Amino acid sequence: MNIMTEKSLEDAVNAEMNRPNEPIKMRGDQVTVHYGDKQALFGVNLDVRQNQVTALIGPSGCGKSTFLRCLNRMNDTIDSARVGGKITLDNEDIYDPKIDVVELRARVGMVFQKPNPFPKSIYENVAYGPRIHGLAKNKAELDEIVEKSLQKAALWNEAKDRLNEPGTGLSGGQQQRLCIARAIAVAPEVILMDEPCSALDPIATAKVEELIDELRENYTIVIVTHSMQQAARVSQRTAMFHLGYLVEEGPTDKMFTNPDDKRTQDYITGRFG
Ligand SMILES: Nc1ncnc2c1ncn2[C@@H]1O[C@H](COP(=O)(O)OP(=O)(O)O)[C@@H](O)[C@H]1O
Ligand SMILES: [Mg+2]
């Protein structure tokens, strides 16, 4: 195959993989958040498309984590937080009183900034969720879920001979992949990641980024990142936040080359942030 053909094939595959017409998996409609008297988000409208990585960018304190936490009701755990507007998952209002929040958080999993494995074995870290959600009928099934989850999180080869050792004994990058395996183990549909690489070195970061790209085949991913390079590398859509407002949202390549809003332009060229 000559280089031209290979290039056009690659473009075609990329266009296909970017899947601009994927269904809307989650939708934020006029989302507001207050912490006590302080308003942190103002009427945010944002669609998250299935099997895509959506990056949330913007300067520190602009509301990225606040918005992310709305998507699986983690803000419920903050006493002063009040969420307004509407958020749907597969067109279903996730703030409807009939929604079981534990089940919602299994469908919409979360990976945090600092790897936070339980002080238990590698095996138990991954087995915990499936066990409490009753996903395995017996030990053999649980073993299989643990193995598959570790494989999907690209950690199996490094962990398979030390499943009974503490998760906290792994390196930082391995711990973060363990946390991703733990999220995957309960068969989520959406995975939320809040600056998942900020505590990792460049090599571990590259591994997690590569993993994120693989995961979107099977999951929908929303990632908060303060690294514009990371947003450009891993996401198909980028949403820019500023002072609690969604400034604009669009295909990642457009957002980084030809944004509509001056604030995005200023942010990506490093004028503030
Ligand atoms: N638990 C909280 N209690 C009170 N204010 C908060 C809390 N979390 C965030 N905030 C405030 O909400 C705003 C948005 O914060 P955050 O969503 O963490 O921004 P980002 O993730 O973009 O850095 C900030 O002004 C921040 O101080
Ligand atoms: Mg944050």
Describe this structure in words.
One of its GO terms (molecular function) is ATP binding. Pfam families: ABC_tran. Keywords: ATP-binding, Nucleotide-binding, Phosphate transport, Transport. Belongs to the ABC transporter superfamily. The structure is a single chain. By secondary structure, this protein is α/β, with parallel strands linked by helices. It has a domain at 24-118 and 190-268: 3-Layer(aba) Sandwich (Rossmann fold). Helix content is 39%, strand content 25%. The strands form 2 sheets. Strands 6-7-8-3-9-10 form a 6-stranded mixed beta sheet, with helices on both faces. A 4-stranded antiparallel beta sheet has the order 2-1-4-5, with helices on one face. Helix 4 packs across helix 5 (139-152), helix 4 packs parallel to helix 7 and helix 5 (139-152) crosses helix 7 (172-184). The N and C termini lie far apart (44 Å). The structure holds adenosine-5'-diphosphate and magnesium ion. Residues 35, 40, 58, 60-66, 78, 80 line the site of adenosine-5'-diphosphate.
